[in-house]
C-alpha cells in the first residue's frame, strides 16, 4: 500500500502523548510547533506515491522502494533514487525521514535467521511495515549518563534505561527511557533497541521491539520545538518546514505483544542484529544520501552568497567554491561506489559496499562543522546588516529606504535579505545549531563511527601488503 | 566623572530612533528586546565606580582606567585589570562594552598630531568622553557590497555608504549607511569612520566624526534581537543578559558640528589614525582580554559537562580538558606578554606590544570555531535529551518523572538541565550562532587580521636571520 | 606489442644525456643512482605481459589495457585493474609509471578532432605508443618563476621556458626548459606541452609535441638521486626501489619532426587538448588509483606499528586505526564511483566520472600531509631508538645485546628494526620528504586542483536548488 | 668557570664508547659523522664566555646564566636572554643544547628538600655542574615497548629498562637501556631518571643519578648520523652543522657513586622531583625559546621563498606570510608572558609562569607539522627544479646554462639554488624528517603535554566561573 500524505496526517491524530515542557500537545498536525514538520513528512508520501519509479510490485501489491530487498545492483540504484528524491525534498535536513528505519528493517529482513526464535516476528514486522506504509523511527541509545549503570546501583538510584520489567503471556512490559527518537512525533511506530553494545549482563535492557507511538504508557518528551519560534517562513525558511524534532521516549509499564518482540534477554544479539544483517548498512546508506542532498544546498548557497557581494570574482573565493564542489562530488563518488562495488551479502542478496558506506559516514561526521564554518566565512560580517525582519517592507518609508540603501549592483534589497535569511537558517539559527550538534552524533560519537570502520576493515589484507614487502628483502651480507 | 548605572540608563531614554524590523522602540531600557542587555551595560558602570582601583585621578577628577594614557607598565596593568573586570561580568560575551571604543580614542589621544588640523577636536573629544564617562561605539565599515563603489556607479544606483553631502558653517552634513554599530542601542555616541582602507578618491566617505545616538537624522536598524525571544533566564541565561545588539546606522542629513569632525576629505588619513596612534592597539587589547574571559567560561563548562556524565575519568577526555586549559593559558600568556614587552611608543608613552596583540587577535579569530566545536563534542548527543523547557518542574507528575529519570549519579536532574541549557546557549542557540559568526569577523575578515600582522612584522630582522645564515657558507671548491 | 622488462631496459641504453649535478650518467640501468628504479619500471612490463587480463586484442595485436579506449563500464574496469596492479607493485610510490601519460594520450585519442589539423599526428602517436609499448612521461609546466614572462622581458633576461625557435620543412626546432619530467630517466619519450593556461600571446610556447629522451639537444637535469644514498635495501627499502626521479628537461635546438607536433602557435588549444578530451581524466584516474595503493601501505604500517608496541589495545589508538581504514575506503569509494557514474563522453565512448575523479584528486592533495603526520604520531619517539644501521647484526657482541634489549613481547629485535626502518622511509627519509612535497603538487598547486573542480561543477544545478527553494515562499502579508 | 669551546672539545676525547651501527667512533670531534655538530656545541661555550651579560658572579666565581636561580624577574630575563642567544646560534635546531638539562638541575636546586636524604647530593651536583660548566644531557624515558613490563615478565624475556642491579658500599650498579639521550655524543654527563610516571612497584627502575658519558659500562648507540651523509655545507647547511644526535644509552654494570644518586627505591619521587621543583619548568622554558628561534628562521625563509618567485605580491600569499608572522609573535608573547606573570615559587624564588610555559609547549607540539607544511606549500613544486648538486657550477658549459636558464628576474641562479637547498633542509631532508618527528615527541606524546597542562590548570577557578553564573538565576516561577 502506498498511503497518501493526508492519510498519514490522519494517522497522527491517534491520541499520542507528546509534551513540550509541560504542555501536552493534542494534535501534532495542527499545533504551531509541529504542523509544518508534519506536512513536510506527509509530502514525502504524496511524492513517492505519484511516481511509479519509486515503488515496486510484489504479489500484486505495490511497496515503497525503500522496502526493496535488493537482488541486483539495479535494485540498489532504485533504493538510492528514492532516498535521493526524499532527501532532496528537505535539502537533507530531515535525517530520520520514513526511509531511514524502514531501511534498517528491510536489511534485517534479508538475513532474519540471525533473530533466532524471533525470526518470524521480524519478518512479520517487515511485511506489516511495507504493507501499511509505516513510518517507523527508533530509540536505540540509553540516556547519556546511564551507560555505566553500576554508578547508579552504587548510589542506590534507579537506572533510567528502558528495560523489561515483567513478562506476561501476551507480551513483555517495558519501563524506562530511551533516546533519541528523532521524528517520533511524526511517526507511526518506534523501534526500541540497542545500537551501542550492552554489557553481557544487561539482559532486561536487551529488549528489542516495536511499539506504536500512541501505545498506552508511552510518552514523548520533545526537546525545544524550533518551528514554533519561527516568526515566518521568510525569516526562517528551514526551521519553518524541517524541524524533524527529537524526543526522549518514556515508557511506563508499556505492554509489547510477543509478536513485536525481536530480541529478548540476549545482550549480544541485541547489537548484532544490526551488523550481522544489512540493517545498519541499508539504514546508513540513507544517511549518506541525505547528507549529500544537504551538500548541494550548501554549495548552491555558497556560490550565491559569493555572487551577492561580487566576491565570486576573487580568485581565493573561487578556489573556495571549487573546494566546496569537490567536497560535494567526493561524497557523491563514495555513494556511487557503494553500488559499483556492492557486496553479494547475505547470500543471494545485494548490499551496498559496507566499507564505503562507513567511510562516507565518517567523512560526514568529521567534515560537517568545518563545511558550515567555511560557509560562515563566505557570508562574512554582512549577515548582520540585514534588518531584524521583513516587516520593514510593510512600512512605506522604511521600505523605500531599505530598497534604496540595501540594494547592490548584484541584487535588489529584498532578494539579498531573503538569501541571507536562508543562509542564516543553515549556519546561525538555533535550527542550524541543532544540525551542527546532530551531524556530529546522529550515527554515534566519532569513535563509534570509526569503530564501525575498524570492524569492517580488511586488516589481514593490509598486513599482507606490509608483510609481503618486508619478506622481499633481508639484512644485507656483511 | 564616574556615572552610575542608573544614570547611564537614564541617558538612554533620549528619543533615539531604533527599529526592530518596522517596530519603533520607544525606550530601550524597558523594551523586552533590550532591557536586560541595557542592564548588563549599566552594571559595568556601577562595578567600576564602586572600586577605586578601576579609576585614576587627574586634576582632581576621577576617570575610568580605560581612559588612562599609560606612562608605565603599571599603567598598562591597570588598564588590563579593568578590561578584565568588565569582561568577566559578561563572560566575554559583550564584545563592544564601554571600554572598547574608549580605548581607541584614548590611544589616539596619545598621538593626536596625526590628526593635523583636527588635533584639537580629537583631544576635546577625548576630554569629553572621560569627563562624561561616555559610552561610545563605532560604525567603521561600509555596507558589505559597497566596497567596490564603481559597480554602483556603473549601474546608476546610489552608493549607500555614508558620506559628507554638504558642508555648512557650523559643520558637515552626512547621509548614508555604516555598519556594524554593535552596542549602539545601549551607547551614548557613535564614532563614524573607516577601518578599511578607502580608495584615494573616496574623499567625502573619509569623514570621521562622532555623533550622539539620538542625533537628528540618525536611525539604528537592529538585527533580530535575540533577548526578546529568550523565554526565561533559565532557558537562555546568556541570551537573556548579553545580547549586545548589532545595528546598521542610517544617517539622513545628519548634522555634525565641526568640533566633532576628526578627519575630512582625506582618504589616507581616515585609516591611518588607527594605526599611527595606539588607537587600534589599545582597542584590540580589550578584544584579547574579552576573549580570554570567554575562554574561562568555555573551559569551566567543558569540565563540568564532562563531570556531568562521568566522562572526565576517560583518559581521552582528560586530554581534551588539558588541551582546553592549554588554550586558555596560551591566550593568557599572549596578553601578559603584551605588558612584559610593552613598547615605548609614541615617545613618552607605553603601548601594549602590538605584535603580540595582533598575534592574539589572529589566534582568537582562527581558533574560536574549533574551540566551540570541541565543546560540542564534549556535550554529545545528550544535549537533546533535556526537556523542551523547565515548565516540567511546574507539573507535579512530570516533575516526579523528570527528577527520577533524568538524575544521574553525578547530578540531580534539575542541575543537569540547568547546565545543559547554559552550554547550549554557548554552542547552539541563535545567540551562540551570532557569536560563531561574530568572532570570525569582529576584527575584520581573517585576511585583514593577518595583514595587520604582516604590517607590523619585522621583515628586515627575519630576512637578516636567513641572509646571515646563507652568508656564512659558500659553494664548495671543486 | 607487449615488450619485456629486459627489452625496456635495453631501450634505455640509448645515449641519453642525464646529469646528476655535473656527473654525466652513461647507463641509467646500471648506475647506482638509478638501477633499482629502472628495474622497478621494467618489472611492470613483465608483470602486465605475464597476465592476459592486462592486455586487449585489436586487429590481431595485443596492447596494454592502459591504451584501451573504453566503450563500456567493463572496459573502464579493465583499465582500473591494470592501474591497480601497477600501483600495487610500488605501493603507490611511482607516480609517473608507464600508465600515466599513456592514459593521457589514450584519452586524447578518443576525441582527436580537438587537435584540428594535427589530428592525424595525435592518432599516429597513439598508435605508435601502444604498438611499441612506449613509456612516455611529460614535461608540461614552465619553470616556476617563468609564469610571468613580462618580468624577464622588463629586465632583459631571457625567458627560460621552452618554445619554438624555428620552423623547418621537416619540423620545428625547440629550445628552453620545462619541468618536471618525473620518470624521464626511465622513459622512452617525453611529451612536451602546457597544462597551465598560457597567455594568449604565448604562441611559440604553445608547442605540444613528443620527443625521444635521447633526441639530439635534449638533456635531463636530475634532482638529487636518493637511491644512490640508500646504504642498503634493509635501511631504506622504498628509496632503494622506488625513486622515480624528477628532471628538468633542457632543449637546445632540438628538432621535432612535424608528425610529432600536436599543437603549434595556439595558446588556447595548448591547454584545451587535456580537458576537451578525456586525456586529463584518464591520466588522473591513474593518480587516484596510485594514491589508493599507497593508502593501503600506510594503513598496514599504521596497524603493524601499533601492534609492535602493543598500542593497538588502547581505545584511542584503535579509533585512529579505524579512521585510517575509513580514509582508505573513502578513496576506494570515490574511485569505484567513477565507474558506476561513468560518463558517455565523448559520444560513443566511456569516461570515468570527471567530477568524482577531480574530487578524489583534491582529497589526495589536501589530505596526504595530515595522513603521514598521523602515522608519525603512531610511530612515536621510539623510531629513534633503533640502531643507526643493521650492521649491529654483524658484530657478535652487539648482536647479542641488540637481540636481548631491543626485543619486545610483541616482536624480536630485528623485526622491529626492519619495521621501523620501513616506516621511516615513508615518513622521515629524504625520499619521504620528496613524497610529502610531491603529493601536494603533482597535479598542480591546490588552487589548480580546485579550479578543475570548479570548472566541472554543475553550478546551474546547485543554483537551481537554492532558487527553487527561495521561489517556494514569499514575504508574509502584513 | 666558563670553559672555552676548545676545552669542551678536548673533554669529549675521553674514551667514550659510541657506536654508529657496528662502527665504534674513536673521536667524536673529528669523525665525519659528528665533527660539525661538536663544533656547533663548542661554539656555544665561546659565545657565552665572550659576553659578560651571559654570566653572573657568585662568591667570586662566574657561572653561565642558565645556572642562575632567579630571585627577580630580571633574573628570569637574564636566563631568557642566554637561552635566546644560544638558540639563535642554531636557529633553534639544537634542542638539547647545554642550557636544557642545566636548567632542570638549576630548577631542582631551588627546592632541593624534595629530594629528602639525597638533598645534599643534588646540591653538590648543581655546584659541580655550574663550577665545571658541565654539559649535561638526559635519558629519562624507558624503551618504547617497555612501559608495560608485565608483558615481558609474562613471556619470560628480560625487561630492558635500566635499573639498579646491585648496591655496593660505594654506590649502585645499574644495567639496562634508557632513551633518548639527545646530544649525549657531545655532552659530558648523562642524567638518568624517569620523566614518565612509574608503577609504584618499579623500585629499582626509580634510580635517578648522573654518570659521565665515558663511565665504564656505558655505551651510546647512535641513530643514523645525518651529518655524515651531507655532501657539503652548500647542499645541506643545517644537516651539516646541527645534527644534535640521538642515542640509546646502554649500561652494563655501570657503577654510580652514592654522591651522584638523587633518587633511589622511590617510584613516586622519581617523577615528582621534576614537577615539585621548578626543574621541569626551567628546562622547558628553554624549549619554548628554542622553538621561537626556529620560528624566525621559518618566517624568514617563507618570505624569501615567496620573493624568489615574485609570489609575495599575490594577496593570498601575503596573507600566508602575515599568518606566519602572527604565529611567531604568538609564541613570542607566550614566552614574554611567562616573565610578566612569573610565579613566586618556591618561596623566595621566581619561576616562569608554569601554565604559560606548558601552554606554549602544547602549542609547539601541536603546531609544528602544519607550520612546516605551510612552508612546503610556499616552496611549491619548484623545489625539484634545482640541479642535484652545486657541482654544475664546476663545469663551464653546465654553469653557463645554469646561470642563464635558472636565473629569474628576482634572483640569480646560484642564489636561488642556495635558498632552495636551505629550505629543503628544513622541510624535506632526512634531517628535516627527524625534526618533524622530534618536535612531536621531545616533550613526550601530545597527551603527556596536555596532561601537564591539565595538572596545572586552575580547575576550581574555572568551575567557580560557571557555578557563580548558574547560582545567579533559578527556575522561573510558574
What does this structure look like?
Chain A has 478 residues and is an alpha+beta fold. Helices cover 48% and strands 13% of the residues of chain A. Chain A has 16 helices and twelve strands. Chain A has helices spanning 5-12, 35-50, 73-89, 99-108, 119-131, 149-155, 237-242, 267-275, 279-308, 315-340, 354-379, 396-405, 413-427, 430-441, 446-456, 459-471, and strands at residues 18-20, 23-25, 55-58, 61-64, 136-139, 163-168, 171-178, 189-192, 208-212, 218-222, 247-257, 261-263. Chain A has a six-stranded mixed sheet, with no helix packed on it. A four-stranded mixed sheet of chain A has the order 5-8-9-12. Chain A has a two-stranded antiparallel sheet with strand order 3-4. In chain A, a hairpin with a 2-residue loop joins strand 6 (163-168) and strand 7 (171-178). In chain A, helix 3 packs across helix 9 and helix 13 runs parallel beside helix 14 (430-441). The termini of chain A are far apart. In chain A, 64% of the residues are buried. The mean pLDDT of chain A is 96. The interface between A and B is large, with 80 and 80 residues.
Characteristic terms for this protein:
homotetramer, 478 residues, alpha+beta, 6-stranded mixed beta sheet, 4-stranded mixed beta sheet, 12 strands, 48% helix
Which two chains touch over the largest interface?
A-B, 80 and 80 residues
Oligomer: homotetramer
Distance between the termini of chain A: 79 Å
Q: What proportion of the residues of chain A form beta strands (DSSP E)?
A: 5-15%
Rg estimate of chain A, integer Å: 24 Å
General form of chain A: globular
Unreliable stretches of chain A, pLDDT < 50, 5 or more residues?
A: none
What is the overall number of helices of chain A?
A: 16
Largest sheet geometry of chain A: 6 strands, mixed
Q: Mean of the pLDDT scores of chain A? A: 96
SSE string of chain A = HEEHEEHHHEHEEEEEHEEHHHHHHHHH
Amino acid at each position: 500500500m502506498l498511503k497518501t500524505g493526508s492519510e498519514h496526517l490522519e494517522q497522527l491524530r491517534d491520541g499520542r502523548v507528546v509534551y513540550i515542557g509541560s504542555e501536552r500537545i493534542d494534535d501534532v498536525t495542527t499545533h504551531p510547533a509541529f504542523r509544518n514538520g508534519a506536512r513536510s513528512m506527509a509530502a514525502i508520501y504524496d511524492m513517492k506515491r505519484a511516481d511509479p519509479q519509486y515503488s515496486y510490485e510484489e504479489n500484486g501489491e505495490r511497496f515503497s522502494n525503500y522496502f526493496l530487498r535488493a537482488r541486483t545492483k539495479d535494485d540498489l540504484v532504485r533504493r538510492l533514487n528514492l532516498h535521493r528524491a526524499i532527501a532532496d525534498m528537505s535539502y537533507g535536513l530531515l535525517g530520520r525521514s520514513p526511509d531511514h528505519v524502514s531501511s534498517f528493517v528491510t536489511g534485517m529482513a534479508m538475513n532474519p535467521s540471525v533473530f533466532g526464535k524471533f525470526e518470524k516476528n521480524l519478518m512479520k514486522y517487515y511485511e506489516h511495515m511495507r504493507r501499511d506504509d509505516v513510518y517507523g523511527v527508533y530509540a536505540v541509545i540509553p540516556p547519556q549518563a546511564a551507560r555505566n549503570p553500576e554508578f547508579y546501583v552504587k548510589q542506590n538510584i534507579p537506572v533510567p534505561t528502558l528495560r523489561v520489567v515483567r513478562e506476561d503471556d501476551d507480551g513483555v512490559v517495558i519501563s524506562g527511557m530511551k533516546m533519541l527518537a528523532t521524528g517520533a512525533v511524526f511517526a507511526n511506530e518506534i523501534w526500541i533497541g540497542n545500537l551501542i553494545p550492552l554489557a553481557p549482563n544487561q539482559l532486561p535492557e536487551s529488549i528489542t521491539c516495536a511499539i506504536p507511538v500512541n501505545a498506552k504508557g508511552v510518552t514523548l518528551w520533545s526537546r525545544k520545538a524550533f518551528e514554533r519560534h519561527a516568526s515566518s517562513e521568510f525569516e526562517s525558511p528551514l526551521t519553518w518546514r524541517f524541524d524533524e524534532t527529537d524526543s526522549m521516549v518514556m515508557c511506563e509499564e508499556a505492554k509489547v505483544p510477543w509478536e513485536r518482540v525481536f530480541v529478548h534477554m540476549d545482550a549480544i544479539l541485541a547489537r548484532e542484529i544490526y551488523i550481522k544483517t544489512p540493517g545498519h548498512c541499508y539504514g546508513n546508506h540513507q544517511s549518506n544520501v541525505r547528507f549529500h542532498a544537504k551538500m548541494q544546498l550548501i554549495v548552491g548557497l555558497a556560490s550565491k552568497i559569493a555572487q551577492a557581494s561580487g566576491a565570486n570574482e576573487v580568485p581565493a573565493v573561487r578556489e573556495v567554491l571549487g573546494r566546496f564542489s569537490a567536497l560535494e562530488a567526493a561524497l557523491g563518488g563514495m555513494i556511487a561506489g557503494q553500488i559499483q562495488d556492492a557486496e553479494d551479502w547475505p547470500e543471494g542478496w545485494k548490499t551496498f559496499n559496507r566499507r564505503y558506506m562507513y567511510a562516507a559516514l565518517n567523512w560526514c561526521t568529521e567534515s560537517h562543522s568545518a563545511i558550515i564554518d567555511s560557509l560562515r566565512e563566505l557570508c562574512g560580517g554582512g549577515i548582520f546588516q540585514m534588518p531584524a525582519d521583513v516587516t520593514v517592507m510593510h512600512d512605506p518609508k522604511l521600505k523605500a529606504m531599505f530598497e534604496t540603501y540595501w540594494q547592490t549592483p548584484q541584487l535588489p534589497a529584498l532578494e539579498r535579505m531573503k538569501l541571507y535569511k536562508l543562509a542564516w537558517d543553515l549556519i546561525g539559527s538555533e535550527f542550524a545549531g541543532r544540525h551542527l550538534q546532530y551531524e556530529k552524533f546522529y550515527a554515534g560519537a566519532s569513535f563509534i563511527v570509526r569503530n564501525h570502520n575498524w570492524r569492517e576493515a580488511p586488516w589481514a589484507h593490509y598486513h599482507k601488503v606490509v608483510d609481503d614487502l618486508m619478506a622481499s628483502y633481508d639484512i644485507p651480507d656483511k
